[in-house]
């Protein structure tokens, strides 16, 4: 059976004002460009912040992942001027 949301926006785009949306492992892996297995490994190694829900379900704050991406950015290398 297909679950619907009553015609509203997809849940992946909805977050209450002032809150951050939690991503499941597949959404977070897609955002980071890695396989879900890699993300599970990083979570186990505590290389990425994770929210543990009841049981073993893991969720990732989108803002945390975006900060990781930003922190890993390096400026483009500017070639030396040739005179």
In words, what does this structure look like?
This protein is an alpha+beta fold and 83 residues long. It has a domain at 20-71: Multidrug-efflux Transporter Regulator, Chain: A, Domain 2. The protein is built from three helices and three strands. It has helices spanning 25-32, 36-44, 62-71; strands at residues 22-23, 51-52, 58-61. Helix 1 (25-32) packs across helix 2. The termini are far apart. The model is unreliable at 1-12 (pLDDT under 50).
Would you summarize the structure shown here?
This protein has helices at 25-32, 36-44, 62-71, and strands at 22-23, 51-52, 58-61. It is α+β, with helices and mostly antiparallel strands and 83 residues long.
